[in-house]
Write a sequence for this structure.
């Protein structure tokens, strides 16, 4: 077998052998180039936020490499003394964290019920949840606005959290239910024989095994809520908006303050990036597990 394998290698031409050996190196270089290309906007925003307004208007951000003296933190100093923008960051946190936590908590309970509990109409109810995935957010804006106005939570942080929670639940239930359903039935039956009830089974067996999927869901939900502007623009308090709306208002009021806007945009980008990199291992594990299953 070794002789045959050597004979096959000997029959390959020199260009083919070079291409085979260089294939891995070429692919790595290609992936590195693609990664650097996707990082360019982020790097450009960071360097723009560290330049003066006049420098931004006069030349591109790449001029920093030939003129490093252009780097300054004036934009960030001004931004940190802008009370409206800084309060908007706190508002964004107060919206994003509860909306993400509620979606994970309620979605995990509902997914477990759809995966392992027997109740009338279970499959039909799950089909309704799947059908809700195709409902666009824009369809519900006016009806939900009227409902929130009648309840007295229109233009409040609570209203924004409830809206994001409601529209995040269908995807959360769909994702977690499919993941929970792949847990071996024998494992759950063994826990039941040991006297574990449904709540204990859910908290001690299902949740630990579903950690990667829950981490992936948390990242998706966090990024969606943090970067949202449409829902915040309609339902949030106009006097204390989240960061996306606050930056939009700064553009309208101070269109020439490009340095401050660049600093604010990069500051709002740092938080979701930090969350993603902090949980990237769990995110990859969840995606790979879903792909294998």
């Amino acid at each position: 077998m070794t002789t045959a394998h050597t004979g096959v290698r000997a029959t390959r031409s020199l260009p083919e052998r070079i291409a085979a050996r260089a294939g891995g190196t070429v692919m790595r270089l290609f992936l590195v180039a693609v990664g650097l290309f996707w990082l360019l906007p982020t790097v450009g925003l960071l360097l723009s936020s560290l330049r003066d307004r006049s420098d931004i208007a006069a030349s591109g951000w790449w001029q920093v490499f030939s003129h490093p003296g252009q780097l300054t933190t004036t934009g960030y100093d001004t931004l940190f003394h802008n009370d409206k923008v800084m309060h908007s960051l706190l508002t964004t946190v107060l919206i994003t964290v509860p909306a993400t936590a509620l979606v994970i908590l309620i979605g995990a309970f509902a997914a477990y019920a759809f995966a392992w509990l027997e109740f009338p109409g279970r499959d039909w109810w799950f089909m309704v949840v799947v059908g809700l995935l195709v409902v666009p957010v824009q369809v519900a804006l006016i009806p939900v606005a009227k409902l929130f106005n009648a309840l007295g939570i229109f233009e409040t942080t609570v209203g924004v959290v409830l809206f994001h929670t409601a529209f995040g639940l269908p995807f959360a239930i769909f994702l977690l239910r499919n993941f929970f359903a792949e847990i071996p039935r024998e494992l759950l039956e063994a826990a039941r024989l040991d006297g574990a009830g449904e709540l204990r089974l859910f908290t001690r067996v299902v949740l630990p095994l579903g950690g990667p999927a829950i981490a992936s869901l948390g990242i998706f939900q966090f990024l969606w809520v943090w970067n949202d502007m449409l829902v915040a623009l309609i339902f949030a308090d106009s006097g204390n908006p989240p960061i996306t709306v606050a930056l939009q208002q700064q553009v309208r009021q101070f269109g020439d303050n490009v340095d401050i806007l660049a600093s604010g945009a990069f500051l709002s980008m740092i938080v979701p990036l930090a969350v993603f990199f902090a949980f990237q291992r769990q995110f990859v594990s969840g995606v790979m597990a879903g792909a294998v299953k």
